């Protein structure tokens, strides 16, 4: 249909008193082939323009009807029919101009509100599917504080084939207040989508001491990383649009968002990395994460270990317990380990089904592959024994004279990322795990056990704390220590999980 035909139809509708407003069913929108799609007319109405004839409007009177001085050459100066024709022409010209102005204004408003119209199509389509980015889901990931390197992205694909658009909403650093929404073409490829991420989130490229950024589902499924190549054009954007909400971590590895202190999240274990053994794959369990601290990020875990499992680990470890060693920084070279740590320890390899199950359970909990884990370290603290405040990561600046450690951590690119710490026994008094830099605090000294967050040992209790931030940088606030046991014996164990496979 040509524009003129559409114009005539709209004039007809206008003359019949039809309402021309910017609505979902009546608006004229550009189609894929560049033509205009006009609203459908009701059945029985002709598409031919209505013609107004002047035949039935002959004048019944003229000016100067009586002409006392008439001669054969004289004619009336102005007739009523001429006046009527002039008025009608003026009216039609005015009506046409008014309609064109109305039509252009309407098209202008439609262009100005294009994003809103697309949003309407995406969120309230005719197929009544659920919103791919429901606010309830977003509330579980919006943070109350800025978290550098952690970003939330929501893609909404139009459900109408003729609307070739994707609406992308970006929440920089996990903040709802930092929302930025743009419209992207549906046909974009992975390189174009990555560029959109860079532009809207300020991502940095080619950082030598950090891993490429990566995208994850809200349940921790790794989707794609910055370095991956798209096998088929458009495959990755379409796949991401199916997820709706997903998370971008500049450090390349998944971290459970803390959101706020007291926030609780139910997590299914084995939902990402089921164990290889069929006998263990049915041991599904759900745990609850609760945020104890956001600086550093510390989460408690309920339901990870049973009392019987705690006792089993103690029995396996007891025959091989020895006093602990430490990897000394350059400034501490030559000092005995007992200056810092007086506990006993051993490492348990996964040689039976039970320990294999623990490995996979840990992988599911932190959403990192089993190959990233060290062996289980089991700890025993007797009366007065402790471990001074320390970091679990290896700061390359502190090991410049230790080439073995520098090689192991690839000069900072590879490191311990998260610690999963299990309490295997109750302790009558003392033995707490302390985080002196909790909420921006500062330790008095490296033996300080009074400042900050303190976690009391209780059999079966588990905590997670992160040594690296979402942007891949080391987190100095993760400094922690084991307070001296004042009464009883403290049994504990932990898994150190790296941001890359171990391979050593």
From TrEMBL:
Entry-linked InterPro entries: Oxoglu/Fe-dep_dioxygenase_dom, P4HA-like, Pro_4_hyd_alph, Pro_4_hyd_alph_FE2OG_OXY
Query: Which PROSITE patterns does this one have?
Result: FE2OG_OXY
The record's annotation in Gene3D superfamilies points to: q2cbj1_9rhob like domain
Q: Name one GO molecular function term.
A: iron ion binding
**Which residue windows are transmembrane per the record?**
77-100
EC number in record:
1.14.11.2
Q: Which SMART domains does the entry mention?
A: P4Hc
Q: Where is this region: Disordered?
A: 18-62
User: Fe2OG dioxygenase domain: which residues?
Assistant: 372-501
Cofactor(s) the record lists: L-ascorbate
Record's compositionally biased regions (Basic and acidic residues): 18-28
Q: Tell me which UniProt keywords the record has, alphabetically.
A: Dioxygenase, Iron, Membrane, Metal-binding, Oxidoreductase, Transmembrane, Transmembrane helix
Q: Which GO terms describe its cellular component?
A: endoplasmic reticulum
Q: Where is the composition biased (Polar residues)?
A: 29-38
The name of this protein is Prolyl 4-hydroxylase
């Amino acid at each position: 249909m040509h524009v003129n035909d559409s114009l005539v139809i709209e004039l007809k509708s206008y003359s019949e008193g039809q309402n021309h407003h910017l609505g979902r069913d009546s608006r004229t929108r550009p189609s894929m082939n560049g033509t205009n799609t006009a609203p459908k007319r009701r059945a029985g109405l002709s598409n031919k323009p209505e013609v107004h004839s002047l035949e039935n409007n002959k004048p019944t009177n003229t000016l100067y009807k009586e002409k006392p001085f008439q001669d054969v050459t004289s004619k009336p100066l102005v007739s009523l029919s001429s006046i009527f024709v002039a008025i009608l022409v003026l009216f039609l010209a005015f009506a046409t101009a008014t309609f064109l102005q109305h039509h252009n204004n309407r098209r202008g408003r439609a262009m100005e509100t294009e994003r809103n119209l697309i949003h309407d199509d995406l969120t309230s389509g005719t197929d009544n599917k659920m919103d791919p980015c429901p606010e309830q889901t977003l509330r579980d990931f919006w943070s109350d504080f800025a978290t550098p390197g952690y970003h939330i992205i929501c893609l909404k694909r139009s459900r109408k084939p003729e609307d070739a658009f994707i609406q992308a909403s970006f929440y920089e650093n996990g903040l709802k207040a930092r929302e930025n929404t743009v419209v992207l073409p549906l046909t974009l490829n992975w390189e174009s989508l990555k560029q959109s991420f860079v532009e809207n989130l300020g991502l940095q490229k080619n950082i030598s001491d950090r891993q490429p950024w990566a995208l994850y589902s809200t349940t921790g499924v790794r989707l794609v990383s910055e370095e991956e190549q798209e096998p088929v054009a458009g495959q990755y954007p379409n796949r991401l649009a199916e997820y709706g909400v997903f998370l971008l971590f500049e450090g390349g590895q998944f971290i459970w968002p803390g959101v706020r202190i007291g926030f609780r999240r139910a997590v299914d274990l084995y939902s990402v990395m089921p164990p290889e053994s069929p006998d263990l794959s049915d041991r599904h369990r759900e745990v609850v994460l609760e945020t104890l601290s956001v600086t550093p990020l510390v989460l408690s875990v309920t339901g990870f270990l049973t009392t019987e499992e705690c006792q089993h680990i103690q029995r396996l470890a007891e025959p091989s317990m020895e006093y602990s060693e430490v990897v000394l920084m350059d400034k501490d070279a030559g000092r005995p380990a007992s200056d810092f740590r007086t506990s006993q320890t051993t490492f348990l390899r996964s040689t039976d089904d039970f320990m294999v199950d623990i490995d996979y359970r840990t992988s599911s909990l932190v959403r990192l592959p089993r190959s990233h884990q060290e062996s289980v370290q089991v700890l025993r603290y007797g009366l007065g024994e402790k471990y001074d405040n320390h970091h679990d990561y290896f700061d390359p600046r502190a090991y410049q004279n230790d080439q073995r450690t520098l090689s192991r951590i690839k000069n900072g690119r590879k490191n311990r990322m998260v610690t999963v710490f299990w309490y295997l026994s109750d302790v009558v008094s003392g033995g707490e795990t302390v985080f002196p830099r909790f909420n921006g605090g500062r330790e008095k000294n490296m033996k300080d056990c009074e400042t900050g967050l303190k976690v009391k040992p209780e059999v079966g209790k588990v905590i997670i704390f992160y040594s690296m931030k979402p942007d891949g940088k080391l987190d100095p606030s993760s400094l922690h220590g084991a307070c001296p046991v004042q009464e009883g014996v403290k049994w504990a164990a932990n898994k150190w999980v790296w941001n890359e496979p171990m391979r050593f």
